[in-house]
């Protein structure tokens, strides 16, 4: 009898042979997963179970919760583009974070940012209440702010977003990783790299132990699926993660794996266009006097640091109007920009994080952490940049966020 779960074939040579734009579309057939017909598009193995030739010796796949060839193809491909030794795909970004959280035992501690995705904050609050796992929320823009909480045995995870969602704070990932590894040999540095995608930033190359992505965002690119991605450096940690995914049944189903594999092929072109559009929109808003949070602008306090780690600033940005009601009117007045949570899609989206993606963070905590209630977040798509700017300009004028008279010198 098979003594345990099958470990699917997700070993990969984590070296990039070509430039990333090439690797994104180049699906390596030397990964041990053979298709008898040499299909150009990896087939969808829509099968829950797999027939065996023996009652005692299982083949490579026995049951899709434990492993599925379409998922394995995707995991190999993702490991390569993330510079990971192993990668796993699960049913959502939150599921990826849940799998990582299961590496932490009761009584151990997590250090995370004071600006982070609302759902992550909610999961960490739940772990505190129900599992005796405490999180210290600190300003991760300063390595010093982590110091008082680094404990040689208790600290288990350091969870970073860089840039953070939604205030675009930058963490010095290599320095934090070096300090943490020196002081807390038991701790793992985890980076939620959703904002950047592996096309712009690969934190495993500069010290992180685990990188996660909400695959719902840039990796898939079309808002037609939910997925989470985990890239891991260390084989022992990878085996624990695989165990949890199989034990809890959170592996990504075959059809969604296929869709995600298809989406990844266009990540490079989408990101280049979205980022170029975002840069124009950030400059437009700054020109009109708004405080804009975007690491592509020289006015960003950590512009230099960000560019030591990343190939670009990405395509999400935030700005404030100075008045919550004005912000609401702006958001409700656009036509092309859809009022929607999420980001990373080919379509442009507009939202108010305090009312939407980050509403699960209690108002008092938001206030304590200096989270502006009038914040507007823009997720820039691939549309024509001038159309996007005109639509935004009309909404800003309609909401009285821009005083046209003053701009014309008539005020
Ligand atoms: C930075 C970040 N991490 C994780 C998640 C969770 O991803 P998902 O919605 O795919 O569960 C999100 C958004 O949802 C996010 O913005
Ligand atoms: N109602 C959802 C909100 C999802 S927000 C999705 C995304 N991460 C974003 O930042 O827009 C929830 O409660 O999780």
TrEMBL record:
<keyword id="KW-0028">Amino-acid biosynthesis</keyword>
<protein>
    <recommendedName>
        <fullName>Cystathionine beta-lyase</fullName>
        <ecNumber>4.4.1.13</ecNumber>
    </recommendedName>
</protein>
<dbReference type="GO" id="GO:0030170">
    <property type="term" value="F:pyridoxal phosphate binding"/>
</dbReference>
<dbReference type="InterPro" id="IPR006238">
    <property type="entry name" value="Cys_b_lyase_euk"/>
</dbReference>
<dbReference type="InterPro" id="IPR054542">
    <property type="entry name" value="Cys_met_metab_PP"/>
</dbReference>
<dbReference type="InterPro" id="IPR015424">
    <property type="entry name" value="PyrdxlP-dep_Trfase"/>
</dbReference>
<feature type="modified residue" description="N6-(pyridoxal phosphate)lysine">
    <location>
        <position position="217"/>
    </location>
</feature>
<dbReference type="Pfam" id="PF01053">
    <property type="entry name" value="Cys_Met_Meta_PP"/>
</dbReference>
<comment type="pathway">
    <text>Amino-acid biosynthesis; L-methionine biosynthesis via de novo pathway; L-homocysteine from L-cystathionine: step 1/1.</text>
</comment>
<dbReference type="GO" id="GO:0019346">
    <property type="term" value="P:transsulfuration"/>
</dbReference>
<dbReference type="GO" id="GO:0071266">
    <property type="term" value="P:'de novo' L-methionine biosynthetic process"/>
</dbReference>
<dbReference type="InterPro" id="IPR015421">
    <property type="entry name" value="PyrdxlP-dep_Trfase_major"/>
</dbReference>
<dbReference type="InterPro" id="IPR015422">
    <property type="entry name" value="PyrdxlP-dep_Trfase_small"/>
</dbReference>
<dbReference type="GO" id="GO:0005737">
    <property type="term" value="C:cytoplasm"/>
</dbReference>
<dbReference type="GO" id="GO:0047804">
    <property type="term" value="F:cysteine-S-conjugate beta-lyase activity"/>
</dbReference>
<comment type="similarity">
    <text>Belongs to the trans-sulfuration enzymes family.</text>
</comment>
<keyword id="KW-0456">Lyase</keyword>
<keyword id="KW-0486">Methionine biosynthesis</keyword>
<dbReference type="InterPro" id="IPR000277">
    <property type="entry name" value="Cys/Met-Metab_PyrdxlP-dep_enz"/>
</dbReference>
<keyword id="KW-0663">Pyridoxal phosphate</keyword>
């Amino acid at each position: 009898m098979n003594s345990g779960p099958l470990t699917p074939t997700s070993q990969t040579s984590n070296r990039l042979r070509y430039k990333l734009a090439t690797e994104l579309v180049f699906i390596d057939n030397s990964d041990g997963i053979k298709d008898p017909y040499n299909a150009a598009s990896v087939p969808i193995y829509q099968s829950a179970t797999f027939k065996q030739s023996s009652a005692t010796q299982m083949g490579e796949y026995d049951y899709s919760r434990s492993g599925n060839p379409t998922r394995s193809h995707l995991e190999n491909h993702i490991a390569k583009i993330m510079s990971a030794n192993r990668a796993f795909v699960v049913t959502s970004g939150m599921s990826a974070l849940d799998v990582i959280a299961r590496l932490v035992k009761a009584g151990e501690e997590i250090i995370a940012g004071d600006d982070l995705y609302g759902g992550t904050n909610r999961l960490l609050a739940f772990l505190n209440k129900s599992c005796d796992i405490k999180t210290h929320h600190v300003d991760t823009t300063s390595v010093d702010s982590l110091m008082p909480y680094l404990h040689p045995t208790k600290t288990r995870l350091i969870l970073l977003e860089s840039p953070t969602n939604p205030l675009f704070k930058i963490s010095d990932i290599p320095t934090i990783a070096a300090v943490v590894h020196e002081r807390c040999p038991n701790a793992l540095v985890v980076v939620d790299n959703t904002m950047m995608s592996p096309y712009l930033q690969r934190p495993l190359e500069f010290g992180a132990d685990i990188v996660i992505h909400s695959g719902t965002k840039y990796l898939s690119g079309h808002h037609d699926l939910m997925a989470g991605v985990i890239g891991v450096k260390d084989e022992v940690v990878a085996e624990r993660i695989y165990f949890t995914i199989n034990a809890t049944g959170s592996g990504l189903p075959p059809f969604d794996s296929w869709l995600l594999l298809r989406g990844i092929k266009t990540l490079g072109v989408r990101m280049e266009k979205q980022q170029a559009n975002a840069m124009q929109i950030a400059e437009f808003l700054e020109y009109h006097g708004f405080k804009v949070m975007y690491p592509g602008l020289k006015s960003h306090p950590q512009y230099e640091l960000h560019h030591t780690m990343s190939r670009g600033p990405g395509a999400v940005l935030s700005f404030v109007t100075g008045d919550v009601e004005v912000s609401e009117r702006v958001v409700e007045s656009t036509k092309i920009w859809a009022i929607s949570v999420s980001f990373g899609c080919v379509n442009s989206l507009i939202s108010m994080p305090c009312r939407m993606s980050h509403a699960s963070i209690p108002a008092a905590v938001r206030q304590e952490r200096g989270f502006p209630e009038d914040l507007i977040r823009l997720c820039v798509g691939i549309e024509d940049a001038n159309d996007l700017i005109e639509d935004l300009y009309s909404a800003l004028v309609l909401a009285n966020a821009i005083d046209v008279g003053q701009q014309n010198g008539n005020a």
